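Fig. S4 source data, part A: sequence.
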Amino acid sequence: MNATSFDPAPDPASDQDPDQALAPGRVVLLTTSHRVAPGLMSWPAWQVLHAADRVLCADGAHPQLPYLRAAGIRVDEASPTAEELVAACTGGRTVVVVATGEGEPALTDGLARLAGSGRVSMPELELLPASYDLPGARLLDLVQVMDRIRAECPWSSQQTHKGLAKYGIEEAYELVEAIEDGDRDELREELGDVLLQVVFHSRIAEEDPDAPFSIDDVAGGIVTKLVHRHPHVFGDETASTPEEVKEHWLRTKAIEKQRESVTDGIPLGQPGLALAAKLASRVRTAGLEVSLPTGQGIGYELLALAARAEAEGVDPEAALRVAARAYRDAVRAAEGLDA
């Protein structure tokens, strides 16, 4: 049997009574996920496959076929029309169609048209997922797509960590803007753009001749960090308030990093207000008594404002953006434009 030739006639069954011979039968569309290893299917799927009168698959290279045949299931490589499939079910027979990656849209559309016509006694139609994606499974697709783009795209194949750095900053700011705007669709898109930066850099890192690492190393590292810094979730510690959680986090982080100063690890290249607030936060959390430096100029005034905002639980960078947006709206209003 091949995908261009299909015999819908059922096997001879002379012992069937007339009513059974006219029974419309059953069609089962069996779907699987390419993100789950072939052969790992649900028990109901295996039961249906073993009990079926016929099992069909249009793709002779379908990854499930070797495992089905190893289990003693005969699979015919065939691509029947909707009419041929209905005819194959006559006599109360069950025909299982192992769906290809596209999900057999032509076949299902044809069956829907037949059912809608009212002229055909239709078999029972069932969609049976044989394997399910786990949460996060689409991340595997992203890794595969990125791998191909890195290999085949003239622009992507030439990119470096340094060359992509500016895009990481841009995407982070666009994510913040989407959060501040409260636009859910934009938020989802910008999260994807930030995720792309992580996957792209990880793919580039695989090619480093001296210290390569992969997306699995990146994910493994953050999993280890999260588990270690949440002893109240994964260990014997307890925490009933956000403040206690933060205390666990900072204490564990200090042990891990073994830093000499509370200022170690603070990126000095971040925006000035955010930098000032971060320094003030570290000082306050550590219980240090450090007077703000005094001097002439707006910089020292801004430093004092940032420290005050942090002490009051206000993000000065975000607060300034809110004020700047209001200023932008006032400018547009003065121009006679919509805000």
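Fig. S4 source data, part B ends here. The chain is about 55% helix and 5% strand.
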